[in-house]
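In response to reviewer comment 3 from the previous cycle, which asked for concrete evidence that the modeling workflow produces usable outputs, we include below a single protein chain processed end to end. The sequence was submitted unchanged, and the resulting structure tokens are shown without manual editing.
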Amino acid sequence: MISIPKTVYEAMIEHAKKGYPNEACGITGGAAPEQLNHFFPMRNADESAISYFMDPREQLEIFKKMRSLSVEMNGIFHSHVASEAYPSQKDIRLAFYPEVSYLIVSLADMKKPVLRSFKIENEQVTEEKINIE
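The workflow returned the following structure tokens.
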């Protein structure tokens, strides 16, 4: 189970809605793999409703900021604007970090966003329970 503070959850949902109609993306960090205490929103360089790409320079800046806060990357976040909160085939194929959580929020119903989390290793998807504190 992963734990997400309510403020971090709200920041992820707000970032996803702000990015609409395109997918939004970001990185989470924390002192432990299951504690997603920080959210670092990123620009979707693809500017697409069906894919996202994190700019490597922006990622480097976020990694520097994370280092200064003594936190490790423990999650990769993105939104699906019209489909369910489940990894697409492309999401699965490009999941290069088996140790992190892959968080997906569905905005198919903008009034009731759905956030889910997954571990993806060797193209095998396992859902994780989320506790919003």
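The chain has one domain: 2-132. We consider this sufficient to address the reviewer's concern, and the full set will be provided in the supplementary archive.
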